[in-house]
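Instructor's aside before we start: the two examples that follow are unrelated to each other. I chose them only because their records fit on one page, so don't look for a connection. First example below.
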Amino acid sequence: MPSSLSRAEARRIALAAQGFARPRPETPGTRQITGALQRMRILQIDSVNVFARSHYMPLFSRLGAYDTGLLDRLVFTRRPRWVESWAHVASFVEADDWPLLQFRRDAAREKYGNDDWAVAHADLLDWLRAELAERGPLRPAEIDHDARKVSRGPWWDWDHVKNGLERLWLFGDVAIAGRRGFERRYALAADVLPASALADPVPRDEAIRELVRRAAAAYGIATAADLADYWRIRDRPTVLAGIRDLVDAGELLPVTVEGWQTAGRPAKAWLHRDAARPRRMDAAAILSPFDPVVWFRDRAERLFDFTYRIEIYTPAPQRRYGYYSLPVLVGDDVVGRVDLKADRAASTLRVQSAWWEPEAPAGAAARLATELREAARWQGLEAITVSRWGDATDAVAAELGAARHDHAALAEPRSTI
């Protein structure tokens, strides 16, 4: 195996590990969805719904237009195969992986289980556990308690009942038994998870080693910072110890990558033993801001020379690219970004802005136009219009034969979990 790789080779390895070397199926079904989920190991949740909710998008990027109801049946049921957990922030993970994150729930209990709020509301926490035990899964709106009538607190403007339920979820006493719309239904963990997931928590250091191993397989090639960020693990010494163990076992191979630097020296990186190394990549996709390909911004810069920040919290006059611009992947590189809005009242996909990265390849506009047509079809939208904001809009509009519209500030939905 090589001890050094070019940046292009690293990009192709990383994209192949995430499933982008695979042809899209004609009709994606549960098997293809499950396969993509198992390659990623984790699916980040975010509620912003200007185009599509973020947890739906990584599967669209890999599989094309698929029935989101198939994913809903895996994650939003009483006994889900993929369950919500604090993993890479709020995320879906396989129910069988619940024991690997016990150390994180233990840390949450230590931090929030005896703070001033928890001590003051210990009776409420006990009452909520009893209420869920008696009544089964409940939305906060279905819980009648005097604590709901007091002023809201600092956590996302939650009342005490919602605050208590979220703490119990972070501790692992409670799990999410589906959602209504985007509102969580809470239940005792034993009523949601298989008994095997609750029987044998994995010790902290062993769990971190296994999570590092899974991150390495999901990334294909990575630095220690990449592997730690995949599961948002802050304990660098334990991550490094896990990497050493995996190197000793022959699962990870030390390499350097062209242009990857740390303090002026080549950065240490590791190649997964089983990572595919395609000679070329012919992918095309529109990515979520929370896709593993780009969610760690430092890695996105190393792989693609792509500086990326979402601007949902930036005042409109100060936005450079748009409210919720999405990276555009063509071939083995991120070549641009596009800000999309699903105008459902008009059954129209609105391209609010579109921009190229330097040296975007010839033909990028045609590939993006194809992805936009697929995106509109996936969302059940009949038309596409393109604004005039951005250096890619004219070329994209011409490829689509699309009507133009004046860019206007989006309504800005509140992001909640």
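Example two begins here.
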Amino acid sequence: MGAYIFRRLLLIIPTLLGIMIINFTLTQFVPGGPIEQILARLEGGGDVFEGIAGGADAGLESAGDNSGYLGSRGLPPEFIADLEKQFGFDKPPLERFLNMMWGYMRFDFGESYFRSISVVDLVIEKMPVSITLGLWSTLIAYLISIPLGIKKAVRDGSSYDTWTSGVIIIAYAIPGFLFAILLLVLFAGGSFYKIFPTRGLTSDGFDQMTAMGKVLDYLWHITLPVLASTISSFATLTLLTKNSFLDEIKKQYVITARAKGLSEEQVLYGHIFRNAMLIVIAGFPGLFISVFFGSSIIIETIFSLDGLGRLGFEAAVARDYPVIFGTLFVFGLVGLLVGILSDLMYVFVDPRIDFDVRET
């Protein structure tokens, strides 16, 4: 097992390097970089994307501009050169990439272009919101999916199994952002009821509340975002649980247990459960990461939650490259490590699994 883990850890290096190379290369061809953002604002042009979308008129206005930046007319070349030096754009792309990766190897992610704060401090500040959303969503998905999947397996082929499968498929087909908007319209002051708040994780005056008041206020704010991010993962996990139980029910040891006179409940929870739940329990880290990374951007933006997903979205719009690449590096590293953790969970749940034997 140690050799397998060592090989997986070594594979992280080229995989992570490939992720960074591809994304860094793509950004070199994307218009509206940080220098253009600043110049457009200084020239009173608003967002730089307005100029990019302006078509022929914008092109004619910048035709006589030798700096190569939209919105830089009337600004001295020395000022633009100072900006390029400040942001490191006076160096060729390869040198900038190597310097960036050398810093990342030492976990030095630099400082945000527009927030005057280090990327590490920014990620630490925003991470609790995203972890909260991902953890609650994953726990609720397991609490719903496991009992539901077991009941569907026991009553396989019945009318209950049929109509619950229909509900699950519909839930899986609904995009998370669409379900989030539906929840806002129905329960957050849209066209129907105003039961839940539309933004943030706490109310004004949160610090003055009692301990129980803080807990209730927090749960009040987190209800809709958690429901929106749980819907697709709960559907997948339910079907996974059902199929896992169906595979175990047909095996010989179950027939033997019934032949010994054990009740269905003893057979189900004393024998089938621990074997069928191997893949479900071992998949917990992967499901958490998928919810944490996959749903956070849209859900946090819709519900105005100040987490990593919203941070990444705002950084992409503003072309805040240190934040974009720093969070990408951290997310990529965490995702690869969680993949190894998921394999270790299989061994922890069932010591009979040996990945070294499987590979030989």
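Residues 206 and 214 are 6 Å apart (CA to CA).
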